Structures are given as structure tokens and as C-alpha cells.
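Please, structure for the following, as C-alpha cells.
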Amino acid sequence: MFRLQGSKVLAVEMTGDSVRAKNGSMVAYDGEMAFKKLSGGGEGLRGMVTRRLTGEQMTLMEVKGRGTCWFADRASEINLVALRGDRLHVEASNLLAADAGLRTGTTFTGLRGASQGNGLFTTTVEGHGQAALLSDGPAVVLRVSPQYPLSVDPGAYVAHQGDLRQSLQSGVTFRTFLGEGGGEAFQMRFEGDGLVYVQPSERNTVAGDV
């Protein structure tokens, strides 16, 4: 159903089914398609209420029809993730599309979300199907194991999946350690067993340059 055309355009072939995609990300389609804006982005009342309270921006549209629809967003790189009953945590701005077999919602992330200025909730995608993630530059997938925890710059974080525990670290930063000054005042730490997706470019965060 999902396939990449190059690295920056997602083609979704539909036979009467539907897909959720970032609002305004459709660049072309053939066949017959119907578009519907989804308020709140997540499913159910909880998804709508938490986004209104925290200001997290994830506006999705539902595309349904027969034919092929192409999606892109500001020439960002697109990364396909296959889910087999597990859950993916992703920054709202990094989610391009999810097929009809997946449920979208929100989950509480505590201080990590507050440090980024993205609210106290992050987007979840779970079930069986494919999701398309956006990244500023080609995303790198890093493995976390019980023996090797991982620390990530909040501005480079895109998503994670698996049995991972997430916490916030403060103190000496990567850039301070290198003598460059500034940089992120916090780092995200992942422990357990799973995958973390990072991008080779940093978004602006509240934690930056503290």
C-alpha cells in the first residue's frame, strides 16, 4: 500500500480503503479520492482534549478512494515503518501518514515533552500496518539494548518503538563538553530493548541554548 518514489514522496495505492495523512500533505492523485479533515488528529475524545490542553499540533486528514495518492511535506525525507501489533511513539510534526490498520492517539511523556515545548503528550501509532515518518535529512535508526542505553539530543529525536523506558538527563551537554557552549540543556535517555529514530538536523526546542 505504501511505497516511496525517491526519498521525499510517498505513494499510497488505495482500492476503496483509507489512509490518514498530515493535513495539506497531498501533492497529487489519480482516480477518485475524497478528503476529510480530522479534528484533533488522535482517535476519540482523549486525543482531542489532550491536544487542546497542551497545544500539540497534529492535524490529520482522511483520504479515501480508488487510485494512487502522493504525499510530501517541505521536501523532508520519508521513512517507512512496519508495525506488527506494537506501538510507535513519534513527534506529531514527524508523522506524515498511517494506514487504516493503525490507531493514532496520545500518551503522556512528562518532562521530556515540556523541555521541548511540544506539550506533555506525544503521538502514538499502534496496530498492524505501515506508518510514514518525516525527518530533516535521512533518518538513522539506532538500536537500544539492556547493555547499551542511548542518550539523544531532543532536537534530533524523531520516534521510538519497542520495550523502552524514557527519562530526561540534565547537566553537562554534548556541546558544553566539546567547549562550544550553548546547546541542549537536556538529553533524552532510553533504556531497555528497542529502536530510536533520529534525524541529522535539530529542530528548535525550549531546552536549547540554556
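Confidence is low (pLDDT under 50) at residues 47-55, 111-119, 206-210. The first helix runs from residue 44 to 54.
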